[in-house]
Design goal:
Layout: H1 13-23, H2 32-41, E1 45-46, E2 49-50, H3 55-69, H4 76-90, H5 100-111, H6 118-127
Antiparallel strand pairs: 1-2
Length: 130
Amino acid sequence: MENPRQHLRYLTIEDILIVAQSHVSDYQVLKEDQLRYLIDIVGEKFGNTELFPSLFQKAAVYAHHIITGHIFLDGNKRIGLTCALWFLKLNGYSRRPNIDDLIIDLGFKIADGTITDIEVIANHIQSWIL
């Protein structure tokens, strides 16, 4: 049996910029170095141990890093959470319908520092999946 993690589809910078453009037509990248760091850190390992082993933790890293890192001039909450969900979709997951209020609420809680833990964010995101 194949290990499904061997075939994970990670977001590229181009993917994230497509998401940004879909939410903010005249988006501006403020912190290109943090965007490049995000691309590297999501799949990073320490030895043979992944820093973020679950798909939902990886999705949470996309959301958290974009939102708290203020990578874009505008739309960081929308871009970050859309990237998290797009990452999951690319890897075979579908979101539940009618959860927009939950997504918005999590975005605000990440942005204002109410929720900072990747595992807690991952649990929220996982609850949105069919």
